[in-house]
């Protein structure tokens, strides 16, 4: 697919290009965690796999051996319920042993149902109550600017989370303070916990909203690794402005029964039959 074709497809939503081997492997790792825990936000994690992959493989300046170094880039997963994708990526990068993934949601585990700062290496902010990640990120980015540091602050929001007024208050503040080292990513999978965003509280025109708040804005296919890489490397998109990247994604991408299905936003009990079906459909769908 050419770059021009990718841009045209993104305007309609997302392409159905095949997931490559790394994207499939990361999803397998998430399902391995689910097999142990029998619970989790599967759909919410699968929609952000490529976004996190590109951030940690190609963009963020972080060091697992020194997770608190002062010049590190800061990433905040504001949609903390998507933490399975983050935990897998942090384990892949070496922030903690991969064996810890098998303890997800167990008593005493590092890894809870939402990420906790100060407990999980590599987690910058405790998130879960939606609408808090961007205000925290604005404070972090403002600190960086006032102290003369050049680190990036990247915040990943859910689209349903953008119903929260605190998101837009923080956006106003970011623009006022000209936080050009701040990048907001919106996981625009167009589904929230129980229904489509268009039904619950329509966000359109979403990209125009961010522009009206004085952000530089781009839209990408959130499962297209090359498009994500180009956009993130190009930020900031305008001098003196924060950046927003609207990532058009599919909730549950990679598993037919989960894709665009609010029933798979969260499961507190996943059966053997469900797990077998998820794994079978991932393997069958990886060539779509």
Characterise the protein shown here.
- This protein is an alpha/beta fold.
- It contains eleven helices and five strands.
- The protein has a five-stranded parallel beta sheet with strand order 1-2-3-5-4, sandwiched between helices.
- Helix 10 (225-234) links the parallel strand 4 and strand 5 (243-248).
- It is globular.
- The two termini are 14 Å apart.
- 49% of the residues are buried.
- The model is unreliable at 1-12 (pLDDT under 50).
Structure described in brief:
By secondary structure, this protein is of the alpha/beta class.
Please give the radius of gyration in angstroms. 18 Å
Multimeric organization: single chain
Instruction: Report helical residue fraction.
Output: 40-55%
| H-E string | HHHHEHHEHEHHEHEH
User: What percent strand?
Assistant: 5-15%
The geometry reads as: globular
Layout of SSEs?
Layout: H1 3-12, H2 21-37, H3 42-46, H4 49-59, E1 74-77, H5 83-93, H6 133-146, E2 153-158, H7 165-176, E3 182-188, H8 197-201, H9 206-212, E4 216-221, H10 225-234, E5 243-248, H11 272-285
Parallel strand pairs: 1-2, 2-3, 3-5, 4-5
């Amino acid at each position: 697919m050419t770059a021009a074709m990718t841009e045209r497809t993104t305007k309609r939503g997302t392409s159905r290009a095949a997931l490559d081997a790394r994207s499939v492997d990361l999803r397998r790792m998430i399902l391995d965690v689910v097999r142990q825990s029998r619970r989790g936000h599967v759909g919410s994690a699968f929609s952000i796999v490529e976004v996190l992959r590109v951030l940690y493989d190609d963009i963020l300046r972080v060091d697992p051996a020194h997770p608190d170094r002062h010049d590190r880039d800061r990433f905040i997963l504001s949609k903390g319920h998507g933490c399975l994708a983050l935990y897998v990526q942090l384990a892949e990068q070496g922030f903690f042993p991969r064996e810890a993934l098998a303890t997800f949601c167990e008593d005493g585990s590092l890894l809870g149902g939402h990420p906790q700062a100060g407990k999980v290496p590599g987690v910058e902010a405790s998130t879960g109550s939606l609408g808090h990640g961007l205000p925290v990120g604005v404070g972090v980015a403002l600190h960086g600017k006032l102290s003369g540091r050049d680190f990036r602050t990247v915040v990943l929001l859910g689209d349903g989370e953008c119903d929260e007024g605190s998101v837009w208050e923080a956006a106003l503040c970011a623009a006022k303070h000209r936080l050009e080292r701040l990048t907001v990513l919106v996981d625009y999978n167009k589904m929230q916990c129980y229904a489509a965003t268009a039904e619950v509280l329509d966000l359109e025109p979403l990209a125009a909203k961010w522009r009206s708040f004085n952000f530089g804005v781009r839209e990408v296919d959130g499962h297209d690794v090359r498009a994500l890489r180009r956009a993130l490397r190009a930020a900031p998109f305008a001098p003196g402005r924060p950046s927003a990247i609207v990532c058009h994604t599919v909730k549950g991408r990679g598993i037919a029964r989960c894709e665009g299905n609010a029933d798979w936003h969260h499961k507190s009990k996943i059966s053997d039959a469900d797990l077998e079906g998820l794994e079978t459909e991932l393997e069958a769908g990886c060539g779509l």
